Amino acid sequence: MSSVIEQLSNLDFSTALFVTISLYLLLFTGSTVYRLFIKGLLSPTEQYLTFLSAQSSKAFFKRRHANRAKKKDNKAKIASLIAQLGDGLDTDSVQLNLELARCYQIAGNMKAKLLEAYQFVFDNKPGEREAFDYLLNEAIGSQEFESAQTLINKTDFVDREIIQITLNALSQYHQSIEDEIKALSLLSEWGLRKAQNAYVDIVRYSLGLTTAHSLDLYKDMAVDVAQFRQTFDHLASLYFDHKLYDKAANNHRIAIALGAGAESYFRLGEVAANFIEEYQEAQDCFKHTIMFEPENVKAHMKLGQLFEHRLQQYEKALSCFDTTIELEPNNAQAYIEKGSVLTHHLHNRDEAKTCFEKAVTIDPDNVEAINNLGILLGDYFYQYESAKSCFEKAIEINPENGNAHSNLGHLLANHFDQYETAIGCCDKSIELGANLQRAYLIKGRILADHLDQPAKAKTYFEKSIKIEPDYIDAVRSLGRLCTEQLNQHVKAKTYYQKALVIDPNSAYTHRLLGELLSKHFSQYEEAKACLEKSLSINPYDCVTYRYLGDLLTGHLNQHKNAEACYKKSIEINPIYSVAYSKLGALLVIHLLQYKEAKACFEEVIELTPDKPQGYLNLGHLVDQHFFEPKTVSQCYKKVLELAPHDPQANLLRERIAELEPQVNPGPASQSPSTTFDDKDPEGIRFAKLTSYSEDTNYEAAAKSQYEQDFGGTDNNA
User: Fold this and answer.
1) What is the pLDDT at residue 21?
2) What is the pLDDT of residue 396?
């Protein structure tokens, strides 16, 4: 031992310190490092490096004492000695600092010195990967992104592993979108810096810093940087999550320019269609997706929805949904989408009904399909009980579905006269907070049309518009309320004009405006133009044809054209009783075709046996132009039965009494009774009796909820 002390006394301070450390190590590790030091085989610098290399390889820890407390104490002592060693040495060597950093890592609790050592290594040798990796992860973990940028700019490393490590670190450490976007952008610029300078323009373009050159110029170079597409798609997804849709689209475009395939096209298509209103770009993207993946069901569906809801190309939409069904026969949503197009745009309600029924068969608990089937059955097939069952089933499956509650409320009010229950359904929908603007609308319509509460109805329409200022159904309903119940025709006109600004191609709005101009402004030519515009948009609206017929015969003296309109209305809807009544009156009063008119009134009676209108018109026509006293008497008696308090009741009773001798003749023959033609040669009383045809209460069965009350896709639950 004394010889060792003599040797130590002859060494300088640093060398003596190392020998002391080696002696300490020998006591608990048995390391051969001791022998290397005391034999003097190495120069002091070589001794330092040898010691540190052994330290970094954990050789001196392989035979640590079993006692944990002692082991921890030894490690702390070693760390303290290493710290003293580092402070006492001239650490200008890259290799020495690298080995020293490894020692600091093993020792622990020496992060400041560890960073200092690795920083020295990186500053003097940027190509040292170990130092770069540690410093980059530390910078990102601490969100010191400027430091990360400095590191990236100094190194020449470009590989997938670095990008993946950094992205993983970002997913763990990022605290805000600004931090993550900044870091990802630095990564993109770092990777692209290895390629031509043009790629830097792409990165800046994605950040909105400069205007990029045409992306087409970069496509030929995409192979060189194909590995960086994922970074741009990741960045696009990040922008999308934070509702920065323009920037999301830009980054997807860059990924596509760098050679991305179907997935990037599909994502860009979704952003373009739903968030930035670039519908042509969306169409191109979905078509490119299908080109890459012809059996991509989602792409076919999205393209169909784009054609239906944005581009109004309904035949193309139908084709897309058919392709989806061909690829995936049990796709219930595809049948729902197809049924919607057929119902609202191609007017093939029979096939639409089949589609909704098929969707329910595939997915019996699909509330959307059940709701749509209920709407179709109620609005177009007049199967109100079946429609009611659909809505009740939808509520049973999902009691939280507000649309089903509001649909049921509308049906109960309009076809079951259950107004309070209907209001309760609307209130439930409002309570659930689902599609509030529609729930408010339906409640307002019930209050206006059935409970004679226009002031309250107006409040609910206004609530609906407050939620969605461009909700065209609520705007139109306010117009109808103003003209039908509040006698505010100028305001009504303003609302209809606003509705046309929202949707210039709304057939129903053009029709409402035409009615208003005719009835309250006496602007008959303008009204005719509005009704014709409505029919040019929707040539399947039986009610508009009927209104146009009224205008032509009532104000423009175009009776033959009016006849054609009424017949077209009946052709579209063979059970539209009002059109039969109007046509019959026209044939009697203006065209003198009594036999054809008689057939019309008989059809009205068959369609509406519980309404007085058909009996009144038929009785009067037969009384004037056909000698059938029994028929006349029976018709008038039926009118009195159905409408005993009608103002014309006394007139009818008088005529029944006059006809009694012919209906029930006595022994002596009776001469024919005087007809109304003798007493009323100008047909004044006939005009009064036929006034029932103007009563809109008899139109309910022929009115379409979609076209009359909600006029848009909101009917789709």
Assistant:
1) 53
2) 95
CA distance 340 to 329: 18
List C-alpha distances in Å: 713 to 318, 376, 446, 570, 706.
16, 13, 20, 26, 8
* Radius of gyration from C-alpha coordinates of the chain: 43
CA 453 to chain centre: 34
Q: Which alpha helices (DSSP H) does 57-176 contain, by range?
A: 68-88, 94-107, 111-124, 129-141, 145-154, 160-173
Over residues 379-388, the pLDDT tens digits come to 888 899 999 9
Residue 100 pLDDT grade (very low, low, confident, very high; cuts 50, 70, 90):
confident
Ramachandran category for residue 30: left, alpha or beta (phi over 0 → left; psi -120 to 50 → alpha): left
20 vs 15: CA distance, rounded Å: 9
Residues 167-218 pLDDT 10s: 444 444 444 555 555 555 555 554 444 433 333 344 444 433 333 333 333 3
Instruction: Tell me which of 329 and 139 has the higher pLDDT.
Output: 329
| Separation of alpha carbons 143 and 226, rounded Å | 27
Task: Report the alpha-carbon angle 196-198-199, nearest 5.
Answer: 80
Name the token pair of 625: 């132009």
State the amino acid at position 520 in one-letter form: H
**pLDDT value at 689 more than 90:** no
Range scoring the smallest mean pLDDT among 120-129, 155-164, 349-358: 155-164
**Predicted confidence (pLDDT) per residue in 409-424, tens digit:** 999 998 999 999 999 9
Phi-psi region of 260 (alpha: psi -120 to 50; beta: other; left: phi over 0): beta
- CB count within 10 Å of CB 460 equals 24
For residue 271 the two structure tokens come to 């952003």
The answer, yes or no, to whether residue 632 has pLDDT greater than 90, is no
Give the type of residue at 555: H
Q: Find, among 643, 637, 646, 599, the residue nearest to 618 by Cα.
A: 599
Instruction: Note the pLDDT of residue 192.
Output: 45
Cα–Cα distance, 110 to 122 (Å, whole number): 18
What is the pLDDT, as a whole number, of residue 33? Answer: 43
Listed residue (135, 196, 141, 198) closest to 168, CA to CA = 141
The DSSP annotation for 19-71 comes to HHHHHHHHHHH--THHHHHHTT-S-HHHHHHHHHHHHHTTGGGTT--S-HHHH
Task: State the average pLDDT for the chain.
Answer: 76
Q: Is 291 left (phi over 0), alpha (psi -120 to 50) or beta?
A: alpha
Angle between helices 13-29 and 44-56 (to 10 degrees): 30
Distance (Å, whole) CA 376 – CA 699: 18
pTM: 0.61
* Helix H or strand E segment including 537: helix 524-537
Contact 284, 272 (CB under 8 A): no
Dihedral class, residue 243 (left if φ above 0, else alpha if ψ from -120 to 50, else beta): left
**Under 8 Å CB-to-CB from 634, ≥6 apart: which residues?**
619
Burial of 3 (0-12, 13-18, 19+ CB in 10 A): exposed
* Residue 702 per-residue DSSP state: G
CA dihedral of residues 198, 201, 206, 212 (deg, nearest 10) = -100
Dihedral sign from CA coordinates of 50, 53, 55, 61: negative
SS3 call for 683:
coil
pLDDT in tens, 576-607: 889 999 999 999 999 999 999 999 999 999 99
| Secondary structure of residue 716 in the 3-state scheme | coil
Reduce the DSSP state of residue 401 to 3 states and report it. coil
Tally of CA atoms within 13 A in the half-sphere of 291 that contains its CB = 8
Secondary structure percentages of the chain, helix, strand, coil, to 5: 75, 0, 25
| Spatial separation of the C-alpha atoms in residues 626 and 672, rounded to whole Å | 12
Res 27 pLDDT > 70: no
